[in-house]
Amino acid sequence: MSLFWPKFPHVAVVEMWGPIGGGSRTAEYGRLFRSLTEDATVKAVVLDIDSPGGSATASDYLYKALVRLAKKKPLIAFVRGTAASGGYLLVCAATRVIAIPSALVGSIGVIAIRPVLQDLLDRMGIQVFVRKTGPFKDMWAFYRKPTDEEQGKIQKLLDEFHELFVKTVAEARGLDLAKVKATPPAKYLRQIKRWRWTYWTT
């Protein structure tokens, strides 16, 4: 990803395609958004997005960076294919959203996936010995099934992330929080496509 652009007034285009993950790629996008925010020659930013979402924490981190950018200059989100889950969270930071008619937009939810390979390891004769200092230290371990206590902890985390997600969507789109929570997902998706959205056609 290049952080260099012309030093005359222009509109910057940032391509964000694919899953949103943690690590260096998220850090690069964070630095890029900060640079665009501070660069006086950038008069507006277009976020060209096609993403199914990804890491909840990475999405929230980039969303906050985009909010700071949108406070200083116009931020236009162009959905070329999909803006789902964390991808939709990023779109919520935009001052205007443009989506092609066939775009998939929404999926306000949080999911946690944990593979359990305990039976496979047993068949292969592989044992895992663990020492830990807290009951949740290996909560995401693949070598055993989760305990009921861990399941409850995971669900609590998911509920907290989802509450933050729904609140962010309501504030960004100017909707009543209670109404957003009460609206079935399919109907809500149709509503967001009617409100404050511009459709681009050839």
Number of strands: 6
| C-alpha-based Rg, rounded | 20 Å
* CATH homologous superfamily title: 2-enoyl-CoA Hydratase, Chain A, domain 1
Query: What is the class in the CATH system?
Result: Alpha Beta
CATH topology: the name is 2-enoyl-CoA Hydratase, Chain A, domain 1
- Our count of helices gives 7
Q: Structurally, how many domains make up the residues?
A: 1
Helix content: 40-55%
Q: What's the multimeric state?
A: single chain
Shape: elongated
Low-confidence stretches: 190-202
- CATH architectural group: Alpha-Beta Complex
Amount of beta strand: 15-25%
Key words describing this protein structure:
202 residues, alpha/beta, 2-enoyl-CoA Hydratase, Chain A, domain 1, six-stranded parallel β-sheet, 7 helices, 6 strands, 42% helix, 19% strand, elongated, disordered C terminus
Structure overview:
With 202 residues, this protein is an alpha/beta fold. The protein has one domain: 2-enoyl-CoA Hydratase, Chain A, domain 1 (Alpha-Beta Complex). Helices cover 42% and strands 19% of the residues. It has seven helices and six strands; from the N terminus they run E-H-E-H-E-H-E-E-H-H-H-H-E. The protein has helices at 24-38, 56-70, 86-91, 118-123, 148-173, 177-182, 185-194, and strands at residues 10-17, 42-51, 75-84, 96-99, 104-106, 197-199. Strands 1, 2, 3, 4, 5 and 6 form a six-stranded parallel sheet that branches. Helix 1 (24-38) packs parallel to helix 2. It starts with 9 loop residues before the first strand and ends with a strand. The model is unreliable at 190-202 (pLDDT under 50).
